[in-house]
Amino acid sequence: MGGLMRASFLDLVFEVLGRAQELRTPPGAWSQAEGTAGTELPDDLKAITVAYAPVCLNHHLTLYHPSTSAFNLADHLKGELEQLNALDWFAEEGPAYHGSAPRFGGPHGLLPIAVTDRRESLFIRRTESGEWICVTLSAFGGAFREFPMGFAEWLYRYLEGEEMFGPGTDVYYPGPVRIEELPQYRGDDVRDRWGPPRAPKQA
Fold first, then answer.
1. What's the chain's average pLDDT?
2. Relative to the CA of 56, which of 20, 81, 114, 165 has its CA 20 to 30 Å away?
3. 89 occurs within a structural domain
4. Looking at the domain assignment, is residue 123 inside a domain?
5. Where are the beta strands (DSSP E) in the chain?
6. Which band of pLDDT confidence, cut at 50, 70 and 90, is reported for residue 7?
7. Per residue in 166-183, pLDDT tens?
8. Closest-CA residue to 57 (of 167, 169, 145, 159)
9. Where in the sequence is the domain holding 143, given as residue range(s)?
10. Number of domains composing the chain
11. Superkingdom of the source (predicted)?
12. Which pLDDT score, from 0 to 100, does residue 99 have?
C-alpha cells in the first residue's frame, strides 16, 4: 500500500464498492450539514457520500447522507455534537485528546461522521496546516487514535481489513463488499447488494 498516491484512494473506493446509487442532492443540503459541522467538509467525503450513502458497509460501518430524512448527515452531526460537547471530559467521562479535553465541531474540532455497530466512532479533523485527518474512538479501547490520512484512504484501508479503530479492531470479509442501502425515508426498506468481485487479501 505504501506506493499508492494519496489522490488515488478515492478511485480505489469506487472500484471496491462499484455501482453508485447517486441520490439527488439538492442545493443547500451540504450547506445545512456544513453549517451544523461549523466548517466545510472534505471533497472525498462528499464524493463517497453522494455516490453511496445512506449505507451500511460490510455489516458494521454506517455512512449518512445530507438530503435524506432517515440517516441524515446534518441530524447525525447535530445529535452527536450536542452529546459530545455536553460531556465533562475533565471528570473522566471520556479520554483526553492531545493531553486535554477534545474539541468537537468548528474549523479544527473533531467531526463525528460515521459509526459502527461495535461502538466505534469515526471523526475527521482539519489540522492547523489545512490537511484533513481521521481520528477514531472505540468504546473498547477508550483512547482517541489519529490516522494521518483523508477519509477515502481510511475507508479503503478499513474495507481491506486493516486495524482502523486501533489494535484488534480489524474486520475483513473475503469477496465483494456487502452494501446495505439504508432507508432514505422512514418506512423505506433496506436494499441489500454486493460490490464487484475483488482479489483475495494478500497474506
1. 90
2. 81
3. yes
4. yes
5. 55-57, 61-63, 111-116, 120-126, 132-138, 144-147, 178-181, 191-194
6. very low
7. 998 998 888 999 999 999
8. 159
9. 30-183
10. 1
11. Bacteria
12. 82
